[in-house]
Amino acid sequence: MFRLETPVYPAEGYSSRLWTRTQKQQPVTVEIRPHFRDIQSQAYFIVLTSIATFVTMASLASRITNPADQQPSQTDDAANTPVATATDSLAPPQEEGSNSQGLVESHYDVEVKLSDLQNDTHSPLYSVSNFEDLNLPQEIMNGLLAMNYRKPSKIQEKALPLMLADPPQNMIAQSQSGTGKTGAFVLAVLSRIDLSKPDQPQALILAPSRELARQIQGVIQSIGQFCTNLRVEVAIPGIVPRGQGIKGSAIVGTPGTVMDLIRRRQFDVSQLKLLVIDEADNMLDQQGLGDQCVRVKKMLPPNIQILLFSATFPDHVMTYAERFAPNAHQMKLRQQELTVKGISQMYMDCPDQNQKYDVLCKLYGLMTIGSSVIFVKTRESANIIQQRMEADGHKVSALHGAYEGVNRDALLDDFRSGRSKVLITTNVLARGIDVSSVSMVINYDIPMKGRGDSEPDYETYLHRIGRTGRFGRVGVSISFVYDKKSYDALSQIAEHFGIDLIQLSPDDWDETEQKVKEVLKSARAKPEYAPASIKA
Ligand SMILES: Nc1ncnc2c1ncn2[C@@H]1O[C@H](COP(=O)(O)OP(=O)(O)OP(=O)(O)O)[C@@H](O)[C@H]1O
Question: What is its EC number (predicted)?
Answer without folding.
Answer: 3.6.4.13
